Amino acid sequence: MSKLPFVRFAIDTRPCCLWDQEIRRVDSDFIDSIDPRFFEHIANIHGQLLEGDERQYAATALRITYSHALESLFAILSATIQAPDCISGWLLRYQPRELRSFVQKVIDRESVYSKLRITPVSWRALADAVHSLFSTGDRDKDIRIRASFGHLWERFAMDLLDENLRNEYNSMKHGLRVSMGGFYFAVGAEETRGVPAPPDRMMVMAQSEFGSSFLVPEQLHDKRNVRVARQSLNWIPTNYVVGLHMISMSIGNVISFIKAINGASPTDLKFSWPSDERAFEEPFNQPGGISSFRCGSTIEEVHQFSEREILSVYNNGDADETAMQSRA
């Protein structure tokens, strides 16, 4: 076998091997370069702007950064489970779909490839291991904090896997194709058919200043033929301010744990936790009433175009489908 240093690991179920003459140094330098305080910075800057004239921009910036931070946290957590001896290799090679697959397996307590000696592999068990190296001097408090981080990571994992939040994040980061601001929804019985009920007879089901609306594709029988629906979400931007601080703490603690299991002295490492333990719950406050609403036009049975039929539009020199239909 070659004398060139290597590390073997899995990314979810995909086998990988990293080769490098100075793997340990490269990985150590990589870990040192990770600075989770960036997320705190965004939270602090835009959190202050939520009361100003540009509060919708600030709220959207917080929302984008929250999803960015979630992926960063769970990529590092997953790398810690599967490749604590090669964090850089895992993070350089993973794909988002593999990350979501692995996170779901951990939530479901399925068997996963792990180099850590925790059984079963769960976010609570990992949080307990990560925070076992620190002490506040109060044993009961230490136990509460470890359990709270584990519960926090479980709830963050559900946000990472939430399809609506993922679609919203993609719409924001790819071309900012969203309408900023929450939605209002009220219902009321008509006294006269076809005449809307007066405002004082309407029951408000959803109302929020903050949120977003964006288009999502819905498959019609196969992935080539789709319809479009409008998805609207209401949310509370201060959730993301607190959430970003908690994610920053979490990443910092995981980095310290990685350094410890790779030989650093625990006395030289830093662990953080909120001074007010209620912060573990604050990222998950819910807006009043309905927080998610989707609507789209009704689609009757339609012809399911084949790949050949769809691409044939380019063969006749007329790619304007709307113009073609209007002339029909």
What does this entry look like structurally?
The structure is a single chain. This protein is α+β, with helices and mostly antiparallel strands. The chain has 11 helices and 8 strands. The strands form 3 sheets. It has a 4-stranded antiparallel β-sheet. The N and C termini lie far apart (69 Å). The mean pLDDT is 90.
- Helix % is 40-55%
- The oligomeric status of these chains comes to single chain
Instruction: Quickly count the helices.
Output: 11
Mean pLDDT: 90
Order of helices and strands: EEHHHHHHHHEEEEEHEHH
**Structural class label:** alpha+beta
Q: Count the domains.
A: 1
What fraction of residues sit in β-strands?
15-25%
Query: How many strands, which pairing sense, and closed or not: the largest β-sheet?
Result: 4 strands, antiparallel
The radius of gyration is: 24 Å
Rounded to the nearest angstrom, the distance between the terminal CA atoms is 69 Å
Unreliable runs? none
Number of strands: 8
The neighbouring-strand order within the major sheet is 3-6-7-8
